[in-house]
């Protein structure tokens, strides 16, 4: 049974999320402010944290920052629609995904399942992806499309690696630029767009309708293909 820490100062939302998660078989720990959230995280060692950004006293960004100083637990942040900057800041601080209020419970549950799956898969060897004529083997540093090896430049490979090592996670422009190009490129989003476009042309089955590298406008990119299992390898 996975333990989920839910942090929100709105009692109605806290009750609704607790009820929905318990009904799906999760153990739920709740906190109404940042200080309690950190204490509960240390005491219960949750498998995932659902964290509202707009908290009294210590806000969600500071909670996220402090959590990341000692744990890699998946963090799903909640924010109001107008707080675009806060969402990006949280993702840059290490949050794994976000939902905008108001949201549907089923959407939240789907995000929770995806984050828990990815957290478990992170413990193994580098993932291998195989679907629609595309094979990407991170351990072998090999990309094959329609039976032919694809040549990637060093920068293209580093960008692919940065995204594919975090399947399903929304990666901000700033995070990708720092990871691939270094600290001096945090604001150079146009460079990132150009290389994403090049990479799509080389690995996407249909670059004009990307299915592997998805865009979250104004925020970043998400690697959408889940790692291959023995079943999917045999079916491809």
């Amino acid at each position: 049974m996975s333990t989920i820490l839910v942090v929100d100062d709105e009692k109605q939302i806290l009750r609704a999320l607790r009820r929905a998660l318990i009904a799906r078989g999760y153990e739920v720990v709740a906190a109404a402010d940042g200080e309690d959230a950190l204490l509960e995280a240390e005491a219960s060692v949750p498998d995932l944290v659902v964290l509202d950004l707009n908290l009294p006293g210590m806000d969600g960004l500071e909670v996220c920052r402090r959590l990341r100083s000692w744990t890699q637990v998946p963090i799903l942040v909640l924010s109001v629609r107008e707080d675009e900057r806060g969402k990006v800041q949280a993702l840059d601080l290490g949050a794994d995904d976000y939902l905008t209020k108001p949201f549907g419970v089923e959407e939240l549950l789907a995000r929770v399942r995806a984050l828990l799956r990815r957290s478990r898969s992170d413990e193994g060897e580098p993932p291998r992806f195989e679907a629609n004529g595309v094979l990407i083997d991170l351990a072998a540093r090999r990309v094959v499309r329609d039976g032919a090896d694809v040549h990637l430049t060093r920068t293209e490979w580093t960008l692919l690696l940065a995204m594919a090592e975090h399947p399903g996670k929304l990666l901000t422009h700033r995070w990708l630029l720092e990871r691939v190009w270094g600290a001096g490129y945090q604001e150079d989003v146009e460079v990132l767009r150009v290389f994403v476009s090049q990479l799509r042309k080389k690995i996407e089955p249909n670059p004009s309708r990307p299915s592997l590298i998805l865009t979250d406008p104004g925020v970043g990119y998400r690697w959408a293909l889940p790692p291959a299992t023995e079943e999917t390898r045999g079916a491809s």
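Residues 230-236 have pLDDT under 50 and may be disordered. The first helix runs from residue 11 to 23.
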